[in-house]
Known about the structure:
The complex is a heterodimer. By secondary structure, chain A is an all-alpha fold. Chain A is built from twelve helices and no strands. The radius of gyration of chain A is 19 Å and the shape is globular. Chain B has a six-stranded parallel β-sheet with strand order 2-1-3-4-5-13, sandwiched between helices. Chain B has a six-stranded mixed β-sheet with strand order 7-6-8-9-12-14, sandwiched between helices. The interface between A and B is large, with 38 and 40 residues.
Amino acid sequence: MDSGFVLIxxxxxSISVPFFLAALxxxxxxxxxxxxxxxxxxxxxxxxxxxxxxxxxxxxxxxLLAATAGGVLxxxxxxxxxxxxxxxxxxxxxxxxxxxxxITKFFLKIVxxxxxxxxxxxxxxxxxxxxxxxxxxxxxxxxxPLILIAIGLxxxxxxxxxxxxxxxxxxAAGESAEASVSVGINVVKIRYFACLASGVLAGLAGAWLxxxxxxxxxxxxxGRGYIALAAVIFGxxxxxxxxxxxxxxxxxxxxxxxxxxxxxxxxxxxVQMIPYLVTIIVLAGFVGRARPPADDGKPYEPA
Amino acid sequence: xxxxxxxGIFVLLAACSxxxxxxxxxxxxxxxxxxxxxxxxxxxxxxxxxxxxxKNLGIYYEFIEPGGGSDRESALRMLASGNFDLIFGIGFMFxxxxxxxxxxxxxxxxxxxxxxxxxxxEIPQNLSAIKFKEEEGSALVGAIAAGLSKTNTVGFIGGMDxxxxxxxxxxxxxxxxxxxxxxRILTAYAGITGEAFKNPAKGYELAxxxxxxxxxxxxxxxxSTGLGVFEAARNLDRLAIGVDSDQFEDGFDEKTGKAHVxxxxxxxxxxxxFETIEDALNGKFKQGLVxxxxxxxxxxxxxxxxxxxxxLPDVIKKVEAFKKQIIExxxxxxxx
Lengths: 303, 336
């Protein structure tokens, strides 16, 4: 039997993954100037697409592709509404979240003839890397291809945002759309790209949930998209900050699970408050300054 | 969209009410819980009761699957104002709505499954408030868990942290300790909102935590969250106990051919629905609180050809003796 510490550490990792993937999507989107509260809905649809395609083809990797495609399709209306039609981004994001609950339920009933859960699907088999797969905590990370993908995406996005020309342009579009346009940056195109990228990432977060459960359950995103939003703010719109934030939120939950199992009662209510409490504290400026991209949430209106 | 759907149903119902209803046959309306039909559990069980009543008693029925919280009361009111004689609400969430609507339509009969008694609030005269003694069924599966545990540690995972689920926990603990007073029991709840009943990822992590801390069998009372418990049981090759209906299939591993759900605590919602309809037909409609326990066949555990070889005959003998004592009233299972 592993010690309680190892157990909590390993659970922290697996609980954090969906927060992190979705939050990474949130970072790209908000850095380009589009607020994306639709993460929750994208995740749910991503999970459903994962299950649907894996169920039909028997191939979880095709399912993964479908999950990202589903994520992109889900975020598309939000992108069009907020970029082209310049509607309130909170409203259109919320619409997506509400719509996702209905649409997944609808298709669940049509395809699986159930209102609550799908048939079982095959998962992605664990990797067995010699030596590494024996070390506690490390084994949790290296044995799971999806976690490796998440780490890869983290590195790519961190470099993209802060070391490349395109990353600079993306950030510029989020800081000041007008100034960016004046130097010849295509803000509209960049914002579309950022939105769709967030669809891919949040779709992957949903795929993670579906794959670890081997099925889809109605409403299985369970508010994780909102915690991811909190992680975006707590992580100050930076990939590495978001990584730490996701791990902290994951740790809070793993700790609460561990304490409950160990018979030490701390109220569930308290632990579930933590992500939101932390977000408020950060937003209120108690821990350094949280400054969102200046043009975050502001539609760009060509003169 | 929900509103439109509801409106659509309303129009449909209005159209139906135009038809002449056959005299003598009861018209039953039923509103499902949030999960709706196809949940393979609670709601499906209620639906089976309806179907059976239609087949054997020749009643006419219609049902509504509400989308969210605010739709419940309007759905009940819609049925009550139509020409239905008996209206069911499935689930404890209906308690308040039922109290209101039943008072508004004193000439109609109502039945609420899993009614939750609120101290100081009177149950309307025309309402059959049906409750199950989940603690009694849970005590039996607790006895099975204690009988099967090799590590002397068992687990309980609840969905939403509310008195209704505490009943499951209390009965389970009582049953475990009845068989083995020294058995350790790990308990956990998934959350404090309705979402806690449909969060399998959380159920998985809770179960992994309990299994890795030595539990070799976990009983869940957590709706879809429990599917995560079964997933953990499959992954770590441990055992679990289902709830509400027979969940044997949900915990079956097709790859290894191994079963992980040894038994399930079942709530006979189908029987309750059928019997309420039957009573209403025979003019014996029960008003007020109706409690269904082991004695009334309202709760029980699964023991059939599928899971027979998972439970030692020795354990079954002890459980049956325990059951008899509860039915005879010699043992009283605590509710909290």
